[in-house]
Write a structure and sequence with these properties.
The structure holds 3 protein chains of 3 kinds. In chain A, helix 2 crosses helix 8. The longest helix of chain A has 34 residues. Chain A contains 11 helices and no strands. By secondary structure, chain A is mainly alpha-helical. Chain B folds into 2 domains: 143 residues, Periplasmic binding protein-like II (D-Maltodextrin-Binding Protein, domain 2), CATH 3.40.190.10; 111 residues, 3-Layer(aba) Sandwich (D-Maltodextrin-Binding Protein, domain 2). Chain B contains 13 helices and 12 strands. In chain B, strands 1, 2, 3, 4, 5, 6, 7, 8, 9 and 12 form a 10-stranded mixed sheet that branches. Chain B has a two-stranded antiparallel ribbon with strand order 10-11. Chain B is globular and about 60 Å long. Chain C has a single domain, classed as Rossmann fold (3-Layer(aba) Sandwich). Chain C has 7 helices and 9 strands, in the order E-E-E-H-E-H-E-H-H-H-E-H-E-E-E-H. Chain C has a 6-stranded mixed sheet with strand order 5-6-7-3-8-9, with helices on both faces. Chain C has a 3-stranded antiparallel sheet with strand order 2-1-4, with helices on one face. The chains are: A mainly alpha, B alpha/beta, C alpha/beta. At the A-B interface, helix 2 and helix 5 of A face helix 1, strand 2 and helix 9 of B.
Chain lengths: 233, 286, 239
Amino acid sequence: METLTLTTLAALNLLFSGNAELWEIIAISFRVSGVAILVATPPALLAAFFLTYQRFPGRRLLISINSTFLSVPAVVVGLTFFILLSRQGPLGEWKLLFTQTAMVLGQIALAFPILVAMGHSALQAADRRAWETARTLGANPLRALFTIMREARFGLMAALLAAFGRIIAEVGASMMLGGNILHYTRNIPTAIALESSKGEFAQGIALGLVLLTLAFTLNALLQHIQGKGQPVT
Amino acid sequence: MTTPLFQRLARWLVVAILFAAGSAGADNNPNKTIRLATTTSTDNAGLLAELLPPFTASTGYPVHVIAVGTGKALRMGRDGDVDLVLVHARAAEDKFVAQGYGEKRYGVMYNDFVLVGPESDPAAIAAAKDATTALKKLADHQAIFVSRGDDSGTHKKELSLWKRAAIEPNGDGYREAGQGMGKVLQIASELDAYTLTDRGTWLAYQGKSPLKIAFQGDPLLFNPYGIIAVNPKRYPDINHRGADALIKWMISPDGQQRIGDFRIGDNQLFTPAADAGEFAAFSHGQ
Amino acid sequence: MSDPVILALSALNKRFGKREVLRDIAFELRPGECTLLSGGNGAGKTTLLRILSGLERPDRGRIDTGKGPLSWRRSKAALQKRVLYLHQQPYMFDGSVRYNLGYALPGGVPKPLRNALIDTAIDWAELGPLDETPAKSLSGGERQRVSLARARLRNPQILLLDEPTANLDQAARRRTLDLLKCFKQEGVSLLLASHDPMHFSSLIDRHLHLYDGRLAALEDQKLMQIPPLHTLASLRSTA
């Protein structure tokens, strides 16, 4: 018990004394996951839109496939991309393995199905008349699309936060694709894995605290957003 | 193996990401960066953190260290995913070179393995006259032994020792962890078990463990490290110049001096062991 | 009549699964004319309106907007230019009344003109004090007025209304009718779907009745007062 208290204190000390290496790891985490979300969101929301508003054969199948991808473990995604990006793999000549770009790719693959699934249900929950009203009032399809996204913005924001929460905390894909290279691809989860394997619990706990704080902030934000999303009447 | 259409589609995606990532790639010039796959033992002990900054300062090559087990490190070298490897599994290294994946193996340094276990030493291996006897005692007592079980250099060494002792390591006490050295030491500490570890990791870890060194000193336990550049004939676009520069630096008198000077507490971890003749030949060849 | 036809339908068919909702529908719309489309619940009124506004695709048939025969894609675009469809319960975007009205204006309108136009529409529909109110919090009558003001800013040739006075009280119904009269006077062609035509007697010029997917013209104003409509509907459901 005492060691836990002591390591936690040491962890807080590390965090607040501005330990450069620690904060660099945190910055890498946020940068990689932030870019992944930025890249994944537009196509994912477009896919969610097509699944909601277009009737085409295979639509239900696509929804089922997407739901299946929701539960694919991060390490499997990591392994798949590892094989693709390895020099022996089909995309080997790009030399992306063990770069931040590879991590971003893996995280996009993890975030995409979450964004599609939650975006789909957010758009489905929104009123269909929003689309029809926009169109009949002269909005072109693109403007109407932005309008329904705006109408469903709380649900869509929730999707974004949930996806971000998942990818910033996942270790499997980042470890395999980034290689846990110091100053470059070492992010919060891979650093925790490494530090705890070395027995350096203080740094592990410090980074864990960052993730915990992040999770709390995201959840509080989600609660707030969902409260706002309730219909007024 | 390549699929052009798939590549074209994926290229779009990557361009988009690179664009979005902006600075992500910028501070790491891919032409200069050296990728070194090495074992957790060198990295976790802190040796590379000590050695690489002066190397980068004098040559301008940044080094990306990917710390994995020896098996995985050699595999990465074989697949051309890294530029060179620094590992400790002599037989596998020789095979790596013989099969044409690696160019030439250079000895760099050695440390040794030790058997650690509970302070009470229930299997009484401290009194053993050599490593094989110590293992036999462990087997006889059915003492709990945690194995790396991850195809690492340490794991390979452990298996070769069991083989030498003519014991099939599958008794009740034998536990395969499938994890890195630090993790395995943690597991052994929690289980009050014996395990085989390299001295470097042990020194870095001993302050946090109730275990003690139970057996050491047998020449069989010596652990030589080799450094091998990935064969540029196989992968013409790897950073072979960088790999050569790093090898040359590691086996140079300066690098060797730094290896010998590296300490954890008061303990020297690695003994420099480069062949002066090889260094001379290397310098000459350049 | 000398007025030009602005929309002509012929041989229009639509089925949902096995159910034939519309069969061989044909009629024409003229400017400044108000057409009542009656029929029981489920007679196909809403489907017909949605096809005319381009929201639903017919299975067969011709929709002529004065440009000759077109593919569905192009007639859909032509329809969306000319026709405005008002839902039975108007949808309010998440924003103020002013935001909702502004939505109907094209993006290129400069800001001062934009504000002036919105102000006119607000005065027209007597929405003055509700200017900055969140539209989603409005009552049914107020929503109806916002949706009509929005329609006016859009300036359509044809206005399709789906049960515009359902769920409204007496006063709100009166105000809606007054606003509709304005549209008519300005030459907009109105097509009103209602299963209860009595309310619009002061407004309508002709009366079309949908029964079992077919359209019948009831030219005689008197027929409107015969109340067979719900009777017909119940007959149909027992048939």
